[in-house]
Amino acid sequence: MDPEEIVKEVLSRIRPTVEERAFVEGIMGELESIAWETIEELGLNAKPHFVGSLAKDTYLAGDHDVDLFLAFPPDTPVSKLREDGFELVKAIAGKLDDYEVSYAEHPYVRASYRGVSVDLVPCYEVSNWKEVRTAVDRSILHTGWVIENLKGRNDEVRLLKKFLKGINAYGSEVYVRGFSGYLAEVLIIEYGSFLEVLEKADFMLRKKVIDPGKWLAREYRLAMETVEREADRPLVVIDPVDPRRNVASNLGWERYGSFYFKAPLFLESPSESFFFPRERPKGSYLSELRRKGTHLVTLLFNEPGLVDDVLFPQLLRSARGLERALSKEGFNVLGWDFGRRDRAFIMLEIDRRERERIKLKPGPEFFTEQGWDFYRKNDRVWIVGKRLFAEKAVRENVVDVIAGLLERGQVALGKNLRESIARAEILLDYVPKELEEDAYLFLSREKWNLKG
Fold first, then answer.
1. Residue 391's pLDDT is what?
2. What is the predicted pLDDT for the residue at 105?
3. Domain covering 151-274 in this structure, CATH number
């Protein structure tokens, strides 16, 4: 089938309907009214701004997360922004259905309203990159730039986003390291359409530097500092609203690799399965262990109620810490995975379940009858002073090794998870029923299978 035909079919499924648009616009209108009303009640100098895919009309059907930023004047001290901003977002959230407090550079609130997730974030009202003071301030500039430059190509962004989601390459979170929504929008604006972006998969990687804002001509020194600093990334996309930032700074090589292979495959053999992948196969993790001759270690623990944006980066750090610690202890870690079901978990695939270690075995004085007995029973024997010593081979189970490492504090762990992981239940070659599918997908590599 022709790619254009597939694109039309996919669009009919991912473009919001008229009714859905009306619902979204209604939600945003109500939230804006609540925000203004609360600002007036508190007597604050702030202004609500919608940012993100809803504000830019690049959202996918069924994906209605709202990002509402409350912008304070640039001359507001950071301490006052933190204090007044937190008071404001909590007061707005109190008028919604429910909420929880989250923390980034400063506190923000994640609420829900009429079944829709709403992030309420304090920031500065900035008009250009020179006024940016906190990490979230650029979001208002990003939204304005995309609206100004997209020029009716909203559906092209939707196609690219859905394609990236389908090939497991979407999401800029540190535990994903994929394409962000903003990066997808910038690429569409730069190259013109979804299909043209796919055609440029190899070209982008070789060209490396994309400069839609023409900063290399206007702010050469700052732009070049960004290029040089980010040289080890798959792409350097100089932010069109700020020459100091790489839009693709969180994009990892693995996720770009998925895009690199899947883009030409779609152009050669177009199919809706790139956008709507088949359901993950069900299989037996125990069969995978038998097939591979490897072993699975799983740490299960109750985490302290962290939101995903905080929990997952710390799980990532902890998984890497365990990998490094076990490698130093002589175990070959073939891969790791993490997540949260009923409890948080970290899985490690290792080459063997036990290791042999040599321990010092003190013996009796050499000139005694017991000394002769010790001499006969051990292969490597030596004398220190009057005492005999020997080497003793001891088999140590990986579960005991991990428990010892955790007890001695010899594993680099996420700061909020240290106590939880220290008390973790450590399972070997077994997982509870709710983790059986996770274990199979991890061990079979179906979770990351580039061949599909």
1. 86
2. 60
3. 1.10.1410.30
Domain limits, CATH 3.30.70.590, in the chain: 285-354+397-448
- pLDDT reported for residue 261: 94
Give span(s): CATH 1.10.1410.30, the chain. 151-274
Q: Shortest CA distance to 209 belongs to which of 226, 197, 222?
A: 226
Q: Which two tokens stand for residue 222?
A: 């700052």
Q: What is the pLDDT of residues 289-334, one digit of tens each?
A: 999 999 999 999 998 888 788 899 999 999 999 999 999 888 999 9
CATH superfamily label, 285-354+397-448:
Poly(A) polymerase predicted RNA binding domain (3.30.70.590)
SS3 for the chain, per residue? CCHHHHHHHHHHHHCCCHHHHHHHHHHHHHHHHHHHHHHHHHCCCCEEEEEHHHHHCCCCCCCCCEEEEEEECCCCCHHHHHHHHHHHHHHHHCCCCEEEEEECCCEEEEEEECCEEEEEEEEECCCCHHHCCCCCCHHHHHHHHHHHHHCCCHHHHHHHHHHHHHCCCECCCCCCCCECHHHHHHHHHHHCCHHHHHHCHHHHHHHCEECCCCHHHHCHHHHHHHHHHCCCCCCEEECCCCCCCECCCCCCHHHHHHHHHHHHHHHHCCCHHHCCCCCCCCCCHHHHHHHHCCEEEEEEECCCCCCHHHHHHHHHHHHHHHHHHHHHCCCCEEEEEEEECCCEEEEEEECCCEEEEEEEEEEEECCCHHHHHHHHHCCCEEEECCEEEEEEEEEEEHHHHHHHHHHCCCCCCCCCCHHHHHCCEEEECCCCHHHHHHHHHHHHCHHHCCCC
pTM summary value: 0.85
Query: What are the start and end residues of each CATH 3.30.460.10 domain in the chain?
Result: 14-145
Query: Which residues of the chain carry a pLDDT beneath 50?
Result: none
**Which residues on neighbouring strands pair with residue 338, listed in sequence order?**
346
What is the CATH superfamily name and number for domain 14-145? Beta Polymerase, domain 2 (3.30.460.10)
> Using N-to-C axis directions, what is the helix angle for 436-444 and 285-292, rounded to 10°?
30
